[in-house]
Amino acid sequence: MKNSIKLVVFILSIAVFGCSSTEDCTKTITIPSQTIITPSGSSYTPESSLVVPCDYVVTPIQEQVPIQNFSYEVLNFEFIPDTGNNTNRLKFDIKLNNLNNFAINGFALITVNADGVVSSSGFLNGATSSCGQISPNSSCIFSYEKEASLNLGLVQSIQLVDVKYYLAN
Fold it and tell me: Rounded to two decimals, what is the model's pTM?
């Protein structure tokens, strides 16, 4: 009985007093999931927890958002599923319009639907003009042309879904 009372008192003293000093004090913070978008694709980091000192100041994480006052016009979009040379070919020209009164430096993120699979990319590998900078109230033509081997898989159709422009950090 005495041992159980001592054990209860010990547990209560830990629960009531917690850390012996502020130097030992810790808290658990939750780091939210995040999607990072770059010209070469995107990366997803799942939610996680981290034990930090009690005086740790949590700084908010901002999601990357596309630039406002931006539009695009599809000048040409052509996909040939089989060129006859054991390749397919995707070629497009998209006019990117900066409607802002300032120059923008960044990258276009192009979303396509390939046989029902929607994905986004910077399409830099194969781009002849990628519009890394667009002057105020002006336009730039993003041009892309690339052939890919049919050994990688046969795609029947590719359709443009959307184009957004992100500022470089």
Answer: 0.68
